[in-house]
Amino acid sequence: MADTSVMDKLVSLCKRRGFVFQSSEIYGGLGSVWDYGPLGVELKKNVKDRWWNAMVHARDDIEGLDAAILMHPKVWEASGHVAGFTDPLVDCRQCKNRFRADDSRIKGTPGQPDAQCPVCGTRGSLTEPRMFNLMFKTFMGPVEDSAAVVYLRPETAQGIYVNYLNVLQSSRQRIPFGIAQIGKAFRNEITPGNFIFRTREFEQMEMQFFVQPGTDEEWFDRWREWRMAWHHSLGLNPSRLQWHQHAGSELAHYARAAYDIQYQFPFGWQEIEGIHNRGDFDLSRHQEYSGKKLEYFDQPTNQRYIPYIVETSAGADRVALTLLVDAYREEQVEGETRVVLGFHPAIAPIKAGVFPLVKKDGMAELATALYHDLRKQLTCFYDDSGAIGRRYRRMDEAGTPYGVTVDGETSANQTVTVRHRDTMQQDRIAVSQVAEYLKQKMRSAA
Ligand code: GAP
To answer: Which residues are within 8 A (CB) of 2 and not within 5 positions of it... i.e. 6 or more apart?
Structure first.
């Protein structure tokens, strides 16, 4: 059975330690929208930096892009989102709640007298299912009429397709090549939930790889392998990662083939990234709707074609949640429960805590000087309040891999202790060597 109590503990830890807060909390919150606090923003930034590094900086065949959230409304007609990005919904006439038509809590057939509302329990109050588009609409310019409607993008991918020729020509790439982008996407999800797993505003890390038709399947296989390896490189437990192949009926309107990378959350196996073979669907549709030729001319072979696209699409928030869930553990230490986020050092928001053992005998001054020196090279946190054991526990909950403590020996022999979060063991290191020691430990954990 799913252990959802872990999620409750994690949500509470995330608020307590400043990872994630509910949006607009002082007004009672906004449904399924979340804000990242000081530690959360560092965690998510580390995820995005690692992705950008692996996809853009480490490769010659992928270029970066940052397209605008608002796009011409015809983009969403061409992409199929205006017609097809819909869920069937039913309303309760009695309590005014709205549900997905396939909500397992509904008893009976919506629209029929036997159907029972899962919230107020009224029979016969549910409407027939109606299709509901998941895109958020807004208006551009001063007049709020149908001609001024624009959408908040539901995926970042379309910004890449409409810029494909711009990037191709300006970067002098040749096919096969890719375009990567990180950015916000918005979906008016009807059944959001599970904390930051399914939200209405989220961040995607998407890469579209443009290939010659006929080579798409081999690129698809390569990208599947590379993307799974990337998730492993974050230090996730490999036994909690698996593939899920989409059956024909599950395939999105644009996909010829699709696999999800799933993680075993406390609420079940769920998608964290999708790898899709989108064929020529997107570029053909944009060519048709814009009237602009989007073919590629391959000089060596004198061939002209619309490239096929292999897409890798991960959610930065979902990866952040995966890391939090995977890292969370409780241990019994000397009769007390120790809560630890065992992040891989590269992912940890803070790499080292710096502490004076006590605030006397010049220890605070030495620790402050060391902290100012270390923070030039690593993200550090200085803490001199409360018993040293409590300070270590706070850093354990923040997932900080190392704790550097200035103690009575420091001024005598210029050494400090370095405490390791996972083993709680301590090494004595020369002050002059601490930065190099920590960096070396982080490199060997990578
Ligand atoms: N461009 C393809 C695309 O958007 P998707 O499977 O709908 O495909 C890709 O989304 C990824 O975006 C998902 O694997 C997930 O990580 C993230 N994602 C999608 N909807 C989300 C939501 N409502 N909240 C958080 N992340 C979401």
So the answer is: 266, 267, 268
Q: Whose CA is nearest to atom 6 of ligand 1?
A: 274
Atom of ligand 1 nearest to the CA of 189: 23
Q: Which residues line ligand 1 (CB under 6 A)?
A: 155, 157, 187, 189, 198-199, 202, 204, 206, 271-274, 311, 313-315, 317-318
Rg (CA), the chain: 26
- The residue written with tokens 């375009």 in the block is 179
Cα–Cα–Cα angle for 267, 268, 274, nearest 5°? Answer: 115
What's the rounded Cα separation, in Å, for the pair 317 and 54? 18
Alpha-carbon span 162 to 213, nearest angstrom: 19
| Probe residue for ligand 1, chosen from 76, 181, 271 as the CB with the greatest number of ligand atoms within 8 Å | 271
Read off the tokens for 288. 């048709």
For 10, 54, 343, 397, 437, the CA distances from 340, given in Å and listed in that order, are 11, 28, 9, 5, 23
Q: Which of 343, 426, 345 is nearest to 378 (CA)?
A: 345
pLDDT digits (tens, 9 = 90+) for 202-251: 999 999 999 999 999 999 999 999 999 999 999 999 999 999 999 988 88
The DSSP line for 378-437 is S-EEE--SS-HHHHHHHHHHHT--EEEEE-TTHHHHSEEEEEETTT--EEEEEGGGHHHH
Q: How far apart are CA 37 and CA 163, in angstroms?
A: 33
Rounded to the nearest 10 degrees, what angle do helices 434-445 and 363-374 cross at? Answer: 50
CA distance 354 to 375: 10
Q: 3-class DSSP state for residue 350?
A: coil
Helix or strand (DSSP H, E) at 263 = strand 257-265
Q: What is the pLDDT of residues 271-307, one digit of tens each?
A: 999 999 999 999 999 999 999 999 999 999 999 999 9
Q: For residue 129, how far is its CA from the centre of ligand 1 (angstroms)?
A: 24
Q: How far apart are the first and last CA of the chain?
A: 34
Model confidence pLDDT, tens digit, residues 24-57 = 999 999 999 999 999 999 999 999 999 999 999 9
pLDDT digits (tens, 9 = 90+) for 91-149: 899 988 888 888 889 999 999 999 999 999 999 999 999 888 999 999 999 888 888 99
Torsion of the alpha carbons at 138, 139, 144 and 149, rounded to the nearest 10? -90
**380-382 β-sheet, strand order:** 380-382, 352-356, 402-406, 415-420, 426-430
How far apart, in Å, are the Cα atoms of 367 and each of 391, 403, 425, 439?
14, 12, 20, 19
